[in-house]
Amino acid sequence: MNILFLTMGRFESIEAHSLYPDLLRCFRNHGHAIYVISPYERRTAKKTELIHEKGACILHVETGDVTGASSLIRKGIAQILIESVYINAIKRYFSDVQFDLVIYSTPPITFCRVVEFIKKRDCAKTYLLLKDIFPQNAVDLGIMTKNGIRGLIYRYFRSKEKKLYSLSDCIGCMSEANIKYVINHNPEINPTKVELCPNAVEVSDNSVDAEMRNEIRIKYGIPLDKMVFIYGGNFGKPQGIQYVIECLRRVKNLKEAFFLIVGNGNDYKKLENFVKEEQPDNIKLLNFLPKQDYDDMVGACDVGMIFLDHRFTIPNFPSRLLAYMQAKLPVLACTDPNTDIGEVISESGFGWWCESNDASRFRKLVESIIKTDIEDMGNIAYEELKRRYDVQKCYEQIIHHF
């Protein structure tokens, strides 16, 4: 089959190791031809470019700043305009290609016209990888409202969301809670086309031996004799930065624990200010690391952390969980009560969960964890990764429909 993948995210190579390249590589390795369209955002100053890789064509298209604009308005406009940009690019570069299957993910929800165009032109089947439930997530965080002037914006994007769902022959959700939410809040959808298709990766053992563990810790100034808790990823509104800071404040005097924060984002500066002002001995911030260096560092730590804002009513399921599982780390998740990630972690036996409005509970869990033999839990995490989140299973879930 000819597979077209639409994304708003950065897609450099099908050989990269992350969610979507891993999935598309699996399709390619089973004999399918892969076509990808991704943006070259205005701030990169790059021109439209078609790249040929083994079994794949990647079309980078000039767009506005769809992911990192200086204002939400500019970002929103760029996301709306991306439909016309992608359709024109398909007409110019892929006019002679008949696509059998279109795969696309949220965000964004503004691919409706692109999906509809290919579906009509080629009689293609369509599969939505639902990674974000927008615009409700923006409402939850106070970025958008359902009333007043901003309510008009909400209703516009909500209509786009419903249209995208209706165009999709199948909707793959990250967890059981995701499935229930989509069906309950969109009664017009046929429930039979909503299914479990979670975040998945090409499984690899990213744990490190004792010698490398010590080398990595020494390199980055991480104590050798403490239990190291790591968070890696974005710090923005979804992570609930004030709660994170309060958690770190509660544990800054725990001598047996060390907290490593690796990331960036709009709210990262608040963490920097907290560390500068209170100068805790057991907290270290790193702004950025190349992916391989980050993966190695995760393997040198002991416990992975996940944070989600308590205001969320939608069930998020962060993909950073998989990096921890690949490194054989148990996981401490602090989230809203609507996601089921905490349930998956705790009931499977490779982690702990607390609500992200209770920093004292976080402190108690950390105190308990540093007294726990966690090696078996890390091994359970890796076995659960193979059982639940192997990209081969995700491929099979999608392909059996078509």
Summarize it.
The chain has 402 residues and is of the alpha/beta class. The chain folds into two domains: 2-197, Rossmann fold; 210-388, Rossmann fold. The chain contains 15 helices and 14 strands.
What Rg, in angstroms, do the CA atoms define?
21 Å
State the distance separating the first and last CA atoms: 9 Å
Tell me how many strands there are: 14
Per the CATH scheme, the topology name of the largest domain is: Rossmann fold
Please indicate the count of domains: 2
Structure description:
The chain is an alpha/beta fold and 402 residues long. The protein folds into 2 domains: 2-197, Glycogen Phosphorylase B (Rossmann fold), CATH 3.40.50.2000; 210-388, Rossmann fold. It is 42% helix and 20% strand. The protein has 15 helices and 14 strands. The chain has helices at 19-29, 72-93, 112-122, 136-140, 148-167, 176-185, 210-219, 241-251, 268-278, 291-299, 320-326, 341-348, 359-369, 375-388, 391-399, and strands at residues 2-6, 33-41, 49-53, 56-63, 101-106, 125-130, 170-173, 194-196, 227-234, 257-264, 283-286, 303-307, 331-335, 351-355. An 8-stranded mixed β-sheet has the order 3-4-2-1-5-6-7-8, with helices on both faces. It has a 6-stranded parallel β-sheet with strand order 11-10-9-12-13-14, with helices on both faces. Helix 11 (320-326) links the parallel strand 12 (303-307) and strand 13. Helix 1 packs across helix 15. The longest helix has 22 residues, at 72-93. The radius of gyration is 21 Å and the shape is globular. The mean pLDDT is 92.
